[in-house]
Amino acid sequence: MTDAAVLIDPVPAVESEAEVVHPVGLDMVHRSRPEDAFPRHWVRLARDRFSVAAVLPHDHPFFAPVSGDRHDPLLVAEAMRQAAMLSFHAGYGVPVGYHFLMADLDYACDLDHLGVGGAPAEIDVEVFCSDLKWRGGLPVQGRVGWAVHRDGELAATGTGATRFTNPKVYRRMRGDTPAEGISIPRATPVSTIGAGRTRAEDVVLSEVGRDGVWELRVDTRHPTLFQRPNDHVPGMLLLEAARQAACLAVGPGGIVPAEARSRFHRYAEFDSPCSIGAVVRPGAAEDTVTVQVTGHQDGELVFSTVLSGPRVDG
After folding, report:
1. Distance in angstroms (rounded) separating the CA atoms of residues 23 and 229
2. How far apart (Å, rounded) are the C-alpha atoms in residues 46 and 274?
3. Which of 3, 20, 113, 203 could connect to 155 by a Cys-Cys bridge, CB 3.0–4.6 Å?
4. Which of 190, 183, 157, 155 is nearest to 261 (CA)?
């Protein structure tokens, strides 16, 4: 198939859909538990633009508030990711069961608009799709942009690159890798407080006896990080590992990851140790700390993330 054929866009004009509000099923956001699915309904605003109404829980056990009074920026990033999956499945007809793969994910949060109250916060996630490539009437890759508003104020923005793969092609691509990986860690987790967590079951790093380096600790029994059978370590777990490594590198109190720039280079597999390294960079602002985090497996770079945000008083 030529590039010209791939780029044919079969989606018609949709102005008549602009006022149609659609509910959200769990399968559309790749979640199996209602408490981990954040979009509530969606509207198509234009051909490649969607508005997704979502909530940020104030009491989520994993995406707990940071610094005691702010929604976790990684919760915002997960809400954006789910809004993108919803837009492609519901808006473009990508079948449920296709694999949603992100090559990069950047976000920036305004912590002043992420205060936690006594009830879930309602947000509007605007999703912009661009640079779409099509095959067989379906998008196979493209860019995504997000703008998150709360009470009319811009609370976060983000960009990402994604692609979709049908199950048969994905299995061919993954070769002999089992369709469902099982991992139950034996290593002791690092300090809960040092990793910026309150529950030991949420800690995803173990000590290896080297300064600034830890081993990824994968537990496929975790109800939020592993919603469904998976043949590789999910990207959200890698982002959480980056946050925890950054907290450990910064020291007492850790960091609120208000901004992050992440690149995913290859799959993180279950059957081989993955080392996570973190280095604190010189900060451009006195009240902000920046940490470079990388993950390596079998001598190859798996992902890299740069996180920035305020240091938390220990």
Report:
1. 25
2. 42
3. 113
4. 157
